[in-house]
Design brief:
The protein is of the alpha+beta class. The protein folds into two domains: 1-44; 57-279, Porin, CATH 2.40.160. The protein has helices at 2-41, 78-84, 89-92; strands at residues 57-72, 104-122, 125-148, 156-179, 184-209, 213-245, 248-259, 266-279. It has an eight-stranded antiparallel beta barrel. Strand 4 (156-179) and strand 5 (184-209) form a beta hairpin. The termini are far apart.
Amino acid sequence: MIAAGLNKKGRVMRLRSLLCGLAIFGMAEGARAADLGEAFLRGSTVIAQPGGTRWDGFYVGGHVGANWSGADFGEATKDLVGFSLRESALANVAGVPLWNVLGKYDTSGSSLGGFVGYNTQWDGAIVGVELSYSRTKLALAAADSIALNPNGFPDGVIVDASASTRITDYGTARVRGGWAAGIFMPYGFVGVAVARADANVTTTTSLYRPLTAIVPYFVDTRTQGKTGDFAYGYTAGLGMDICVYGNFFVRGEYEYVQFGAFNDIKLHIHTARVGAGLKF
């Protein structure tokens, strides 16, 4: 009887120990679930690594850059020369308005501006949108002339031309894709661009008879210009954001912007810039 009582008491003690262990394990699992947060319980895939840098959310910052710009003036004279020769076969038959009187020219300068954007993050992958603005002064100018006697025509043609353009500021709206690698976030982007620019083109078209006189018998000068008008295009580039401390980050990037014909002038900008910003 005494032995039976002792065995029964031992089983009760073991059962109590098992129940206590289960209770402690359940409490620990509940604490871990609470730490994961409500977002995890809803099934979100955004999970921060312990001690990792988060890149999601809004951010704002400023930048400075070095610019290299180019302009193609090859088609800048066609409309003006074509209008001067509108009553002549030299326009449609000889193709004088299509002469490449002016060529390509380059310049360099600097820019100052800012940016604002928003990132979403899925594990290490980052997708975001960003608006940027840059103030600059990129001025380009060209001047040249061509004198030819088209085959089959008694008239010789002289076209003197000059053109200039100046980009005052430009902005971009771009989509970014990147990868979180600790404190580093390399990214690439594509988007659209708009610039505010001035442009002026002047042509003087002269006709003369090579076999009789060198002095022109017809001279017509035309000018067209735009001030503070807009040129539209696209942008693409690469860069890297680096988290320095807390929500403060720095960046370096390369950007290429190509604009469509503005006053029949094609413009592009290469930019290397550095910047800094804050995440929210």
